[in-house]
Amino acid sequence: MAVTIKDVAQLAGVSPSTVSRTCKDHPSISEETKEKVRQAMQKLGYEPNFQASNLASQNSRTIGIVLPPSARETYENSFYLEAIRGISSFCNQKQYINTVVTGNTEEELLSVIKTMSRSGQVDGFIVLYSKQDDIVINHLYNEGFLYVLIGKAYQNINQTIYIDNDNILAAQEATEHLIKQGHKKIAYLGGDNSLMFSADRRAGYQLALTMNGIAINPNYCQELPFKKKDQIKAINQLLSSDDRPTAIVVCDDILAFTLEDICEELKLSIPKDIAIVSFNNSLIAKLATPKLTSIDVNSYQLGIEAASQMINHIENPNLMATKIIVPHHLVVRESSSLDR
Amino acid sequence: MAVTIKDVAQLAGVSPSTVSRTCKDHPSISEETKEKVRQAMQKLGYEPNFQASNLASQNSRTIGIVLPPSARETYENSFYLEAIRGISSFCNQKQYINTVVTGNTEEELLSVIKTMSRSGQVDGFIVLYSKQDDIVINHLYNEGFLYVLIGKAYQNINQTIYIDNDNILAAQEATEHLIKQGHKKIAYLGGDNSLMFSADRRAGYQLALTMNGIAINPNYCQELPFKKKDQIKAINQLLSSDDRPTAIVVCDDILAFTLEDICEELKLSIPKDIAIVSFNNSLIAKLATPKLTSIDVNSYQLGIEAASQMINHIENPNLMATKIIVPHHLVVRESSSLDR
DNA sequence: CATTTTTGCGCAAACGTTTGCACAATTTCA
DNA sequence: TGAAATTGTGCAAACGTTTGCGCAAAAATG
Asked: What class is the A167-296 domain?
């Protein structure tokens, strides 16, 4: 049997309440007594029982982490594990625990989330994606359950806490980087636009064009289908057209990698014929040939900040819903710059 | 305030203990009463309080997941997230929760693990790696704390529960696949051999050679350094030697990808001059040019099995330490086969 | 029909904390 | 020097379950 608060109390010659208060550094215990108690704790290797503490203080010190419902390919994106690692590392420090919830469909996720919240298993959820009309996010909102989004909120913007990059600005910078290299015929390849980050990146791309007096060519701005085959077809079409772009902003390294492949097949040289900038700065960007210029979104830090906000709101329930913007940075490599 | 067991008891006109026993389908409650209770639970949307239940039954229904202490690059391997997803999905089903623990060094991990086990935050740990002389694993073993390894145990083999692929067999199959293609000069590129999977794969490689009457060439069997630059240097050396191998078994897709790059630089055609087989069957294997033949180790399933074993041992403390072998399969692609 | 066995349920004591309140001891103030 | 304010500590009731034990009522037995 593990050592309990009573054991410590007995050894220190005080009552359990005094021990409890010492743990929380309560001001009404004298420094002298605290020292005595601390020594006893030390000696016995005391660690407060997590369950008992949670039951008494009516919380769980547990944060749910919701992965997007998706196909396996999505999870190859190192973004998710990095975000989880960020969250975990912060939780580990703060004596919180975290639990991943995953499922193949929104419904599966929802059912797990419902029992978790009802049974008090978690104090709140960090949702690792942001999507329009998502039933999970809608449920959390409607129930008034605490949650923070990684990604930009789609609705109820002022009532939801979210951690995001400034994806509009990031895409703008990516695009302007290409404009500075002299490109005018710049395309954008995005994914499902109901995902907020993809929509934002597209918006930033368009903004950059407009601000630099470049007309927007609707053929250049593509929302690619999910299936790889269809993606390849669409890209091939774009690159084979008479009015082929000379530069492309791509919403994701993996997609950019595929793009590079197609370019090679079509004998288009990168960055000479086609310059590329993409997002995430994952390992794949460094391994690709030529190496990909990519925007690093600091996924680990997104996780840290999300956990920090979460815990802050758990412990101070009447805080306002704030948003946090985590900085990004452009990492220039061969795919966009002849000088390198 | 959430609905408690007392509310249900009152509505059903029974005592709290009856409700509790109904939840666990205790045989000494009549079917009639159970039905009455179940209806009350349904009506109120009752979900037992996780903390209270855990406190009373002296467990935590929580599993710690230990990531290897490492540099960021390691986590780009989709293996980890897939294993976590497997664990989570099983936990979600069984009303368990899981918490990821991560750190930069073994010491950091150890300190978190110590407080977690002392405070009863977790019932056991699933360790996502297996390594010789690892202080985390040693600590868990010495304390007699429940843990399961994903990977093969290094010591105390009969006392530790582990879930693994048969990496020896897998590497053997990989090597034999190359031998069948007519190769005799086959090399092996591994990583840190204190990691069990790397050592096993090397053993399997050597076994295959021996069994097929091929002499083992020590120059062909390399334990590559961690730094990418040094890796490249070593590989270049191997490929530039007079006695260049014609086929290579590589312990990891990411490394194989780098190998492909070097081959291209050296104007070695794959699979004509060099055939390659690697491990993990990650996205990168499918994206590489040429596509990589790779052994799929079923990381998601490894996670599922690990969670299943863990829960089994939590609920039946006097079970023996068993090992589970999860099947792998070879996925043949362009990098090893001319026919494709 | 009386006795024993079985069945079905409730009582109440845990589980290990937290925290409002009471209260003695000490200090401050007039 | 006595009253009031402050300080430091302990008591005991929560928190919402689980579970050993006891005890009626019902069923089985002789």
From this structure: alpha beta
Cβ contact A88–B75 (<8 Å): no
Tokens standing for residue B314: 């939590």
Pairing assessment for the beta strands B62-66 and B124-127 based on DSSP bridges = parallel
Asked: is A1-58 a CATH 3.40.50.620 domain? The reply is no
Chain A residues in contact with B122 (beta carbon < 8 A): 97
Say how far apart CA A264 and CA B95 lie, in whole Å. Answer: 50
Residue B333 backbone phi and psi in degrees, to 5: -130, -160
Same fold yes or no, B59-165+298-327 and B167-296:
yes
The verdict on a CB contact (< 8 Å) between B98 and A100 is: yes
What are the tokens at A130?
A: 């942001």
Report how far residue B289's alpha carbon sits from residue A289's, in angstroms, rounded to the nearest whole number.
Answer: 10
Amino acid at A172: Q
SS3 B221: strand
Residuewise pLDDT in 10s, chain B (340 residues): 589 999 999 999 999 999 999 999 998 899 999 999 999 999 999 999 999 999 999 999 999 999 999 888 789 889 999 999 999 999 999 999 999 999 999 999 999 999 999 999 999 999 999 999 999 999 999 999 999 999 999 988 999 999 999 999 999 999 999 999 999 999 999 988 888 999 999 999 999 999 999 999 999 999 988 888 899 999 999 999 888 999 999 999 999 999 999 999 999 998 999 999 999 999 999 989 899 999 999 999 999 999 999 999 999 988 999 999 999 999 999 999 866 4
Query: Bridge partners of A277?
Result: A249, A293
- The residues of the protein lying within 7 Å (CB) of strand C read A 1-2, 4-6, 16-17, 20-21, 23-24, 46, 48-49, 52-53, 55-57; B 13-18, 27-30, 32-33, 52, 55-56, 58
Residue type, A144: G
> CB of residue B121 closer than 7 A to nucleic acid strand D?
no
Residue ranges per structural domain of chain B: 1-58, 59-165+298-327, 167-296
CATH number, span B59-165+298-327? 3.40.50.2300
The CA R_g of chain A, rounded to the nearest whole Å, is 25
Of all nucleotides, the one whose C1′ comes closest to residue A57's CA is C18
